[in-house]
Design a protein that fits this description.
The structure is a single chain. Helix content is 28%, strand content 29%. By secondary structure, the chain is of the alpha+beta class. The protein has a single domain (10-240), classed as archaeoglobus fulgidus dsm 4304 superfamily (archaeoglobus fulgidus dsm 4304 fold). A nine-stranded mixed sheet has the order 3-2-1-4-5-9-8-7-6, with helices on both faces. The protein binds two DNA strands through strand 1 and helix 3.
DNA sequence: GCGACAG
DNA sequence: ATCTTGTCGC
């Protein structure tokens, strides 16, 4: 599972090119579908997946995929990926850095469960090319995704019917969820609308600072930092959450 | 040139 | 994201 833990980054670095990455995003944005393939009235009993990454100060990154059942938030599966981080953080190109950490764990989760929707830490449609990491993953996996971000990347705030949105030109790309006076930027990734993304993120935000699938993925990725070993089993941490 | 800039 | 001490507020 972590066989390439110590492999170097040469191959990945060589395959990465900023201009090509931008072209890839433009292609992805043409495939985005913002219609609703999910229904908030059908979400009870469904499996949701949270994706998040954290980093160590030695060049390693940790990706977490956690499957949770709504509305009890039982953790039914969990997977951790540890890899050397090969791509720098470039605003707008986050997906090319973090997909290496998130995709292996997501694939392992998908072997066992069929999630209703994926929650991804970062923006989806609220992106300079409408192709943030949540959209990127949603298009590649052809599945509904919601982007959950703690900070604005692009867009201008605007108020409509008392709600705060982010708009790019005339299009609304994100709706802001206020949790304890803190702004959380919700945007559709793929196969979901902006309003449904917001409404689902909102009902997922029990008492935590973030929608619970992302909160739990975040917690696990940070706990894992203190337990780094090649045979790390995510399930050992399940009882340390909540 | 200057400021902004997901994680 | 991560590095970091004390400190303001509920």
């Amino acid at each position: 599972m972590n066989s390439m833990l110590y492999s170097d980054c040469e191959q990945i670095k060589a395959s990465f090119n900023k201009e090509i990455a931008i072209k890839v995003q433009n292609i992805i944005s043409k495939k985005v579908d913002l219609r609703d393939y999910v229904d908030i009235n059908e979400i009870e009993g469904k499996v949701l997946v949270g994706l998040d990454a954290s980093y160590l100060n030695n060049g390693l990154g940790i990706g977490v995929a956690v499957a949770i059942k709504y509305p009890q938030y039982d953790i039914i599966d969990c997977d951790i990926t540890i890899r050397k981080v090969c791509i720098p953080y470039i605003p707008g190109l986050l997906a090319f850095r973090e997909m290496y950490l998130l995709v292996p764990s997501l694939l392992n989760i998908l072997k066992k469960v069929k999630p209703y929707v994926l929650f991804v830490d970062g923006h989806g449609y609220a992106h300079p090319r409408f192709a943030g990491i949540a959209t990127h993953i949603g298009v590649v996996f052809n599945t509904p995704t919601i982007g959950i971000a703690k900070k604005r990347l692009v867009g201008e705030e605007t108020i409509k019917n008392g709600d705060i949105y982010l708009k790019i030109g005339e299009k609304l790309v994100s709706k802001i969820l206020l949790i304890k006076n803190k702004k959380i930027y919700i945007s559709p990734g793929n196969k979901i609308s902006l309003e449904t993304s917001f409404n689902i993120a909102k009902i997922m935000s029990g008492n935590s600072k973030l929608p619970i699938p992302i909160y739990i993925a975040d917690r696990i990725s940070k706990i894992a930092k203190n337990h780094i070993d090649p045979n790390l089993d995510c399930k050992k941490f399940i009882d340390k959450i909540k």
